[in-house]
């Protein structure tokens, strides 16, 4: 018996749903958990009439224009049909009725209720009621005997009872079912049924079988079973002719038996495997409507029950079915979660089928096959015998006995089942079978397709009306696919019998007058997917070809696809191509992905890698973010984005299902943006796709990486950090492919990442996780490590600080190595030397700054830190944007040779031999000592200290060379430079006298440096001296220094005074002048270093 | 206060629009608006929304409460209760009028909404009159009326205050020699 399973459609909200046909078979009538009765003209009726009968409708029955429903108001109501006017209440119960049914003539209604009672009511006069008492649990189901003599009912107490209606007594009762306390807990609804015409049998679903009892004698005359039926049968329904019995089971299996032969004539599996809870035959017997517990409605069409001689045609039909099973394997629906409707095996085998590829007439061969398989599968031999036993004593016709073994031999293949491959689709389009649909919704605009009686048209609308005005096209060619870009609309239609598949392009941005072109594909080649990029259009065809066109219509490259295309997406020069790599098994799809670039250098970025999908899901959207990163969504709502930084891997960035309120809600993704991080999608209530009307509104979902423990602070920050890193990968990609990059945004993101790292660092510090701190520090940029070091040392974690300083050094070397090659060739040797020379002062200056900052920090406490982070991060982040100027600062940081500073015994410590480990500690000590001094000065020296003094080119040279010097530089010079500088701030007037130079303040600094170094010694020698005395003493000592040294300092100072920047600087506020002096001083001090003396000399000659 | 003034205040309410143009953030005294991305909804004050709408630069999304079912509920509640129920929006009348007059093509079932809002308005104003009436009848010195919107207060303010003044004058004239003690009898 061939039949066609129509796709399921949404009928009611989730829950028990019932279905019946009206007397003429014109309407399908359903009721469901939403309390509505819907009247469908056909399965495709998108606007069914509905009657609201209550909050929930439990059951319905329809006969002779009367619609009887059991609703949640504990009543059984009548409505007229099809008008839906209320026609009174038939009866009431103390609780809700569970099942209502008409008798054959439509004069009586029987209703079973959860209050254990069954009532039989006259439709014309509801006062004439008969109550059948005796069940000890809620009644599951009731059915009338066609002769109106008996009534059968099943109940949760486990009994199936036949009542005599007139006498209101039990005729017979069988304990057949499992006992439960409520209908909702019952394993099976046990919808029993009397055979209609003859009334010979009563069918009772019991477990996985349907028992047949003979009317009158009430003998058990047989059972209908099927070895594929492994779950309890929920509902049984007789065909109107009484010859066939259909049963719907829990796992969604629909089975139809020929009752005479007791043979299965049809098996169908619910497409999603939901429990079938109601079945109804069309009055003509050609259709079965069924509903599931999720509220969906389905239809089996084309059942040939009226055909004659079915038994003889069925015999051969059953055998090829086995063959099918073995090789085609797609009718083993137990595991089939099929996406596309697979046809029934029986249908394929049927005589009148076209595709006789499957039809193997040699029955013997097939049997052998079956036997072989049975041998392999020992389980099956048992069932074979069982089957034979079962059918052995059948008194039925010849065909029955001969076919029985064949049916029983059906080899049950329980290995992996291939998944039907997902069909090609356009990302951003709703399914083609809808009359009103979106053909494309993307970031440019919307293409809507209408295909109804009046109109077959396409509407193109642009989000930004500046791109182009809206267009209305008549769709005479029947286009089913569309794509839209800033330049063009691309449309394509599949081929028909006489017309080839066509590709049409409306190139509206074209500057000449012909804005349209059309291409016919070769005969037999159909467009399967298409997409538009910048200046090109791509079409994937059924001939496994990818054809590339220019947007003006020139044919370009053509190449073969590795598999049937699933979808394509274009962005700029990139083409994303998803195809079937292989056959997937057990609900999985095996997709591959290619990413091509059509720029000047044409290349393949991803070469057919498998596309990761969630288990048992398929691809539902694929495309690019606005910034050009590939990204896709699977049917489980998981959004994944390409991570270019990790070798083109895919990172899940969002799960849209998490934000859905209900299980059946979905988000229909229309686009993604990386900056700002937005997933643009349309919320669809109760469906996967949005309707075209009312016009859906776009919602925005945030991205979230599925990291562990995001409820904790640590997890949150980690998530934020990695998300930020991932979503800013595109900057490097864009700049590498020559696009303009929003530098401000990039800076911002870098800053954000470093801040997050610092926060995580602080958190780990608090949690005493020093190792973790070091790990975090590895991720930081160099100047943030400096901060981290400071943080660590302030929180007295000296070990940590040590390790961090090692990292800092490593990073500085790395940075330097990275930058070295960038040096421009014109920076010749003399520049380099000058760089060397200058680098030291800069280092020292930097030290000094650090010191100052520390001083302030000590005063201001911790809150300063954040501010400082910002200030420090900013210049660094700019580095990439402005090569020369900002690099000064980071390099200065690099030259954070504070670690090298030995405040009290600089001369004693050998420069190279200084252990790095003690660096930071020394630094801390010195800064602490300085703190009170600067405190008394009361002049916070923050602010604009960091302004570069030197011209740009010099700064550049320094930037590259400083690190070297920072490492090489004798550490003792640093403190010399730094400390007097700090001193000087306080006492400029005191130091003024020793000026030996025309540049009045410059000599001070030389002295200052010296003072700084020797202050402690002086103090140690003369502990009772006060501040001014110390200075005096120091001055005395300074004068005793060798003329050589003093001279070099002076010369340095002179050279420095030539700097334009310096001149400018002097115009600034007092403290800034001091600053610049300091820096000069430091330069001088560094010239003490023999290695840099030469360079100092060279510079002064400039 | 003039109704037009109240309407002016209502124009500061925010409403969602879907612009069909692209514009960066705009910085206004009242706060920053935007950025405007074509196809993406954004909150803007009503005055701007209407301006853009008139220039066909946007579609207005009706506020959440401007929905037939919700308004029906509110209407039923308003009819059932003796006191004022919270209005769907402090400027529901003004917004309805503004949006329906200028953007009725963006609001589904505009006519029904118009009727419903009018019904709600009528019910509320009737209540207001009734309470004013009883206020005067009972010669109360004060009364509490919650959940009134500005527009509703405005409809009755002038009339009520003037009439109270008049009545005061009349009463004082009625009993020229009346003392304060006698007034207390009222």
TrEMBL record, chain A:
The keyword DNA-binding applies. Residues 830-845, 907-921, 956-969 have a biased composition (Polar residues). GO terms for cellular component: nuclear replication fork; nucleoplasm. Residues 1000-1077 bind DNA. Residues 325-334, 816-827, 848-862 have a biased composition (Acidic residues). Signal peptide: none annotated. Gene3D superfamilies: High mobility group box domain, YVTN repeat-like/Quinoprotein amine dehydrogenase. Residues 1000-1077 form the HMG box domain. GO terms for molecular function: chromatin binding; DNA binding. WD repeats lie at residues 9-41, 132-173. Residues 307-414, 811-1007, 1049-1102 are annotated as: Disordered. It is found in: Nucleus, Nucleoplasm. Keywords: DNA-binding, Nucleus, Repeat, WD repeat. GO terms for biological process: DNA repair; DNA-templated DNA replication; mitotic cell cycle. Its main location: nucleus. Core replisome component that acts as a replication initiation factor. Binds directly to the CMG complex and functions as a hub to recruit additional proteins to the replication fork. PANTHER family: WD REPEAT AND HMG-BOX DNA BINDING PROTEIN, WD REPEAT AND HMG-BOX DNA-BINDING PROTEIN 1. This is WD repeat and HMG-box DNA-binding protein 1. It comes from Xiphophorus maculatus.
Automatic annotation (TrEMBL), chain B:
Residues 2-61 form the DNA replication complex GINS protein PSF2 N-terminal domain. This is DNA replication complex GINS protein PSF2. Transmembrane segments: none annotated. Belongs to the GINS2/PSF2 family. It is found in: Nucleus. Its main location: nucleus. It comes from Xiphophorus couchianus (Monterrey platyfish). PANTHER family: DNA REPLICATION COMPLEX GINS PROTEIN PSF2. It holds the Pfam family PSF2_N.
């Amino acid at each position: 018996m061939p039949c066609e399973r129509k796709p399921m459609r949404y009928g009611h909200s989730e829950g028990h749903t019932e279905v019946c046909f009206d007397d003429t078979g014109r309407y399908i009538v359903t009721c469901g958990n939403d309390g509505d009765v819907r009247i469908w003209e056909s399965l495709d009726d998108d606007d069914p009439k509905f009657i609201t009968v209550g909050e929930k409708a439990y059951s319905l029955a329809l006969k002779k224009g009367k619609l009887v429903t059991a609703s949640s108001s504990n009543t059984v109501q009548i409505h007229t049909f099809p008008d839906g006017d209320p026609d009174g209440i038939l009866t009431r119960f103390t609780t809700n009725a569970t099942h209502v049914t008409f008798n054959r003539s439509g004069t009586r209604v029987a209703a079973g209720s959860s209050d254990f009672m069954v009532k039989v009511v006259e439709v014309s006069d509801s006062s004439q009621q008969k109550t059948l008492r005796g069940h000890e649990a809620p009644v599951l189901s009731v059915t009338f005997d066609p002769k109106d003599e008996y009534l059968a009912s099943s109940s949760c107490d486990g009994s199936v009872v036949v009542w005599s209606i007139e006498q209101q007594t039990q005729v017979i009762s069988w304990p057949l079912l499992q006992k439960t306390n409520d209908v909702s807990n019952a394993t099976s609804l046990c919808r029993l049924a009397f055979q209609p015409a003859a009334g010979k049998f009563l069918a009772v679903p019991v477990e996985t079988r349907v028992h047949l009892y003979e009317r009158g004698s009430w003998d058990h005359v047989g059972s209908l079973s099927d070895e594929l039926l492994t779950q309890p049968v929920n509902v049984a329904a007789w065909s109107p002719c009484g010859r066939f019995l259909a049963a719907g089971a829990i796992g969604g299996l629909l089975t139809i038996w020929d009752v005479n032969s007791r043979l299965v004539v049809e098996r169908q599996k619910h497409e999603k495997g939901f429990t079938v809870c109601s079945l109804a035959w069309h009055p003509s017997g050609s259709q079965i409507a069924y509903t599931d517990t999720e509220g969906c409605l389905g239809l089996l069409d084309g059942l040939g029950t009226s055909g004659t001689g079915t038994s003889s045609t069925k015999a051969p039909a059953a055998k090829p079915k086995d063959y099918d099973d073995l090789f085609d394997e797609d009718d083993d629906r137990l595991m089939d979660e099929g996406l596309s409707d697979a046809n029934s095996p029986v249908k394929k085998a049927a005589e009148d089928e076209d595709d006789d590829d499957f039809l193997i007439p040699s029955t013997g061969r097939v049997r052998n096959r079956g036997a072989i398989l049975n041998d392999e599968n020992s389980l099956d031999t048992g069932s074979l015998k069982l089957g034979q036993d079962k059918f052995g004593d059948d008194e039925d016709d010849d065909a029955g006995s001969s076919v029985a073994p064949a049916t029983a031999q059906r080899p049950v293949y329980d290995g992996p089942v291939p998944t039907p491959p997902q069909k090609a689709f356009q990302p951003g389009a709703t399914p083609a079978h809808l009359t009103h649909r979106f053909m494309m919704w993307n970031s440019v605009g919307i293409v809507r397709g209408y295909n109804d009686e009046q109109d077959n048209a396409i509407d193109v609308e642009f989000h930004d009306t500046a791109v182009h005005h809206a267009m209305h096209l008549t769709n005479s060619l029947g286009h089913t696919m569309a794509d839209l870009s800033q330049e063009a609309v691309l449309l394509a239609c599949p081929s028909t019998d006489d017309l080839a598949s066509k590709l049409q392009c409306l190139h509206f941005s074209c500057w000449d007058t012909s804005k349209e072109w059309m291409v016919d594909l070769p005969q037999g080649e159909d467009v399967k997917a298409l997409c538009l990029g910048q200046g090109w259009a791509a079409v994937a065809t059924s001939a496994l070809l990818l054809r590339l066109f220019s947007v003006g219509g020139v044919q370009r490259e053509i190449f073969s696809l590795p598999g049937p295309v699933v979808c394509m997406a274009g962005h700029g020069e990139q083409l994303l191509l998803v195809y079937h790599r292989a056959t997937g098994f057990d609900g999985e799809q095996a997709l591959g992905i290619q990413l091509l670039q059509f720029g000047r250098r044409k290349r393949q970025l991803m070469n057919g890698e498998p596309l990761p999908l969630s288990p048992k899901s398929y691809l539902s959207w694929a495309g690019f973010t606005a910034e050009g990163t590939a990204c896709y969504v699977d049917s489980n709502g998981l959004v994944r984005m390409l991570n270019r930084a990790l070798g083109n891997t895919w990172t899940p960035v969002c799960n849209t299902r998490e934000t859905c309120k209900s299980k059946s809600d979905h988000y229909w993704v229309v686009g993604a943006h990386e900056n700002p991080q937005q997933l643009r999608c349309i919320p669809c209530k109760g469906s996967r796709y949005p309707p075209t009307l009312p016009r859906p509104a776009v919602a925005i979902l945030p991205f979230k990486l599925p990291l562990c423990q995001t409820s904790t602070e640590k997890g949150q920050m980690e998530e934020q950090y990695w998300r930020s890193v991932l979503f800013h990968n595109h900057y490097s990609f864009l700049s590498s492919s020559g696009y303009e990059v929003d530098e401000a945004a990039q800076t911002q993101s870098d800053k954000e990442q470093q801040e997050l790292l610092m926060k995580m660092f602080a958190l780990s510090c608090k949690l005493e996780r020093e190792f973790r701190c070091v790990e975090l520090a590895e991720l930081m940029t160099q100047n943030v490590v400096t901060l981290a070091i400071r943080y660590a040392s302030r929180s007295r974690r000296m070990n940590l600080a040590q390790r961090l300083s090692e990292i800092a050094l490593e990073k500085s070397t790395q940075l330097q190595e990275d930058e070295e090659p960038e040096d421009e060739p014109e920076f010749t040797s003399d520049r380099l030397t000058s760089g060397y020379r200058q680098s030291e002062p800069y280092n020292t200056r930097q030290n000094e700054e650090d010191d100052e900052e520390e001083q302030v920090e000590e005063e201001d406490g911790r809150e300063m830190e954040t501010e400082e982070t910002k200030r420090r991060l900013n210049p660094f982040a700019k580095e990439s944007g402005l090569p020369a100027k900002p690099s000064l600062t980071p390099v200065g940081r690099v030259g954070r040779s504070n670690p090298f500073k030995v405040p009290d015994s600089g001369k004693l410590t050998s420069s190279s031999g200084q252990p790095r480990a003690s660096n930071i500690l020394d630094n801390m000590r010195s800064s602490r000592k300085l703190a009170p001094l600067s405190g008394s000065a009361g002049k916070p020296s923050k602010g604009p200290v960091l302004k570069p003094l030197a011209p740009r080119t010099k700064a550049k040279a320094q930037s590259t060379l400083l690190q070297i010097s920072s490492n090489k530089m004798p550490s003792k010079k640093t403190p010399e430079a730094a400390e007097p500088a700090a001193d000087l701030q306080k006492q400029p007037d005191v130091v003024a006298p020793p000026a030996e130079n025309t540049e009045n303040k410059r000599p001070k600094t030389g002295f200052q440096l010296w003072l700084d170094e020797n202050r402690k010694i002086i103090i140690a020698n003369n502990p009772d001296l006060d501040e001014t005395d110390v200075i005096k003493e120091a001055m005395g000592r300074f004068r005793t220094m060798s003329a050589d040294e003093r001279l070099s300092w002076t010369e340095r100072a002179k050279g420095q005074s030539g700097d334009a920047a310096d001149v400018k600087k002097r115009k600034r506020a007092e403290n800034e002048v001091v600053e610049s002096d300091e820096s000069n001083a430091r330069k001088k001090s560094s010239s003490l270093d023999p290695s840099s003396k030469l360079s100092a000399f060279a510079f002064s000659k400039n | 206060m003039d109704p037009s003034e109240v309407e002016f205040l209502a124009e500061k309410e925010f409403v969602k629009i879907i612009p069909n143009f692209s514009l960066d953030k705009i910085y206004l005294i009242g706060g920053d608006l935007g950025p405007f991305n074509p196809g993406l909804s954004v909150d803007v004050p009503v005055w701007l929304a209407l301006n853009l709408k008139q220039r066909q630069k946007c579609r207005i999304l009706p506020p959440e409460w401007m929905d037939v079912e919700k308004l029906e509920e509110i209407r039923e509640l308003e009819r059932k209760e003796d006191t004022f129920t919270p209005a769907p929006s402090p400027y529901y009348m003004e917004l309805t009028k503004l949006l329906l007059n200028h953007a009725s093509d963006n609001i589904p079932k505009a006519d029904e909404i118009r009727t419903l809002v009018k019904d709600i308005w009528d019910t509320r104003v009737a209540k207001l009159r009734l309470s004013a009436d009883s206020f005067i009848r009972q010669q109360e010195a004060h009364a509490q009326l919650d959940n009134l919107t500005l527009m509703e207060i405005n409809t009755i303010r002038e009339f009520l205050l003037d009439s109270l003044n008049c009545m005061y004058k009349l009463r004082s004239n009625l009993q020229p020699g009346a003392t304060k003690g006698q007034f207390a009898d009222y």
